[in-house]
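Service request form, structural biology core

Requester: graduate student, group of Dr. S.
Request type: structure prediction, single chain
Budget code: on file
Notes: please return the result as structure tokens.

Sequence provided:
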Amino acid sequence: QSYCHRLQHDMYFLTSTSRLNEQVVDKIVLQLNRVYPQILTNEEAEKFRNPKALLHTRLSDLLKHLQKKGDRHCQEFYRALQINAEQLFNDLPSRKILKTPDPTEIDTDKEQYMLNDRGPVFFLACFSVAAGLALFWYCCNSEKQVIGGARRILGFSPIIIGRHVRNICMLYLEDMSRN
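Core staff response, request fulfilled:
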């Protein structure tokens, strides 16, 4: 992905309110004016550092100007941004895309949060359902002697599984014992 495309992708993020303050934008413009090869001429640098214009407007104009100039100019902007606002540089949307080489790959930080926010009650509920289904399956595929034992276990387990589930299991076991 070229730097111009990345800059186009990051433009909204950079120009949104309170991302870049006036001092950081001035430092970036000065650096682009002073590096070799000179990215911004003195007139362009003065235009983008004009305190009379709104910061949002100056920054938008600067980014559009750099995109018109080409990939090398956009690359130098990213270098200046990294030097002057490293935290913001690391939070850019295009940087996050570059960090995950496969778009189908799971973001482990997000997935870890999603798995850990449920707590132990959720785990116990899932485990109880799985154990109940395993017991139910075992009862369905076994002989009548085992069904009677399972019926006794289910009869004394109102705490382990809910009443409605227990009643359904009991009715099923009674039907199985009649057949």
